[in-house]
Amino acid sequence: MDDLFTLSPSGRYHYTGGYNPAAIIATAIGAIIAVIPVLLKATDVAQYSWFIGMGLGFVSYLLLVPAFRVRERSGVLPGLPKVKA
After folding, report:
1. Which has the closest alpha carbon to 25: 65, 55, 75?
2. Residue 85 covered by a domain
3. Is 82 among the domain residues?
4. Which residues, 6+ apart, have CB-to-CB distance to 22 below 8 Å?
5. Residue 19, SS3 per DSSP
């Protein structure tokens, strides 16, 4: 649990300067796509924009994880000791 709140580069969730670039990009993609139908006043699609944005953000994240090597940078690899509860 302590690794969630540490700024140490050796922390499990440090990624790149404390930010997960794959998550940030995926969130931006999902948010932008979700806002477009609302701005265009496409009422039929706009009522589902949250689900569309969330789905596209999720798929984007899954596609970006290998590119940014999130698993390797996070320190969550097989064989590592489990975090204390």
Report:
1. 65
2. no
3. no
4. 61, 64, 65, 67, 68, 70
5. strand
Structure tokens at 51: 């689900």
What is the pTM assigned to this prediction?
0.72
Q: What domain range includes position 52?
A: 2-74
Please tell me the least confidently modeled range out of 7-16, 17-26, 34-43: 7-16
d(CA 57, CA 40): 20
Residue 74 structure tokens: 């996070």
Q: Given pLDDT bands bounded at 50, 70 and 90, which one contains residue 16? A: confident
Within-domain flag for 50: yes
Identity of residue 61: Y
Burial call 53-84: b when 16+ CB within 10 Å, e when fewer: beebbeebbeebbeebebeebbeeeeeeeeee
Structure tokens at 16: 């790149």
Structure tokens, 71: 């698993």
